[in-house]
Fold each of these.
Amino acid sequence: MSNQPVRLPDKQPTLRLMPMPADVNHAGDIFGGWIMANVDLAGGICAIRRARGRVATIAVNEFLFKQPVSVGDVLSFYAEVVKVGRTSMTITVEVYAERHPSNPLVVKVTEAQLTYVAVDADVHALVGEQRFGPDEDPVPIDIAARPPAGQRLERGGIAERRTRGGMRGNG
């Protein structure tokens, strides 16, 4: 663990928060789950802006806690789209803590990579044509597209649903 000071990125954070005493674990540090939840919020904000519609987290690809977080740290979450597919996008989130207001210190505390998928109002994954446009001009999402009955979206494409009694739907 390096406590080397760094500078905040020269851009607007997606989210900025200060953890409170209710967010600590038994050791007095902030719960990792609290940080994970807020990383997901920051990533989701970025994904929603790009998709111009509803999204769902489908994977946490990587999550690294680099430093413990303390009550009173001001956390800045920076989210960025790093990869766009036909129905999903990968977002990188970096979290920095501003510590010790009397003697300011900035350290990178967390970095993560998450995957989001565009969904319709019923939280069905959108499949079919391209769902995400270029950075500057996101395309509107057509929420009418859904997987065929008896099928669901899976990594790599559509898979059939299985039940204890065999295939559900077409036979």
Amino acid sequence: MDKDEARRLYGILKKIEFMAQLSLNELGDLVDHLQKCNFKKGDVVVRHGDPGDSFFLLAAGKVAIWGRNRNGKKVQFGFLGPEQYFGEMALLTGEPRSATIICEEPTQAYLLTKTDFDITVRNNPTIVQEMMRTVERRRAQGRVMASRTDGAEPPAPSFLGRLKAFLNLGG
């Protein structure tokens, strides 16, 4: 990764609410661990039920967020584009993916594995609180979208009790 690309990624990460409190060095460590991924239109980035072991930061392109309603019908919840992200729930809980993400156009993303993220969290456990707020807000948005899309059900919100143990933060 060249310096301009690293600087751009650093700037994007700094704007993400739950990463804003990280130090320059911690953000730099995350940037160093980001892996560039290129996808074609129609590629499935993650599938509902897949292991939750990574976070994606979109650099270019557009992805659609898909789920299923109570009747098993495929339902689109929305879109994400450049400088947006998904997979923060996976970083926190490691639970299976709660949605399927499909590229609407050629897309470039950066992947951060849970293993690499956990190192940063251990050095700055307060980031978990901000991430929990983000996750709860997204889950609430998912419930609202579900109520507008023929009863689609987002994943159950009961993950916070397992959070500390999963992140090996003790208590």
Amino acid sequence: MSEVDTTGVEGERSDGPKVRLAEAMVIRDVVDALRRRGIEAEDIGVIAPYRAQVATIRRVLLQSEDAASATVMVDTVDRFQGGEREVIVFSFATGSEPPVDGLQREFLTNQHRLNVALTRAKSKLILVGCIPALENLTILSRLIAYCRSMKTIIAYSPHAAESQTSVNSAS
């Protein structure tokens, strides 16, 4: 399992509380890197918590240098239930910490949804998100602490995406 930290990614803007374009662009780079390593598009899945983020990721994947990347399955946590892929890329779709009493926070920390998202990967799980926005959320803080302890948090750069996508790496 790896966490790609998107803190400070250029082009950081949000089209609303449930869409993060910068994360979608990072995911495109990660998917392209996986494809260059020989992983077939049908073996890659991308999961996001919100339909708006799913649509954004699909749109960005259509602009990929690898046409097959546009055929990667991208869907919400709820719609991905029961599906598995060799590699799962999970987008948290938030660049700032959600309000304490907000539905977005409740949605991101829902244990059932998080369990579904984290257990769809057969070989490699790549989390993509802004760590400062996530590390104060109870269940996610433990996940981030685990990634830190395993030294699998990578500050995003196009080269970091390339080096962290090997399915042979520890999951």
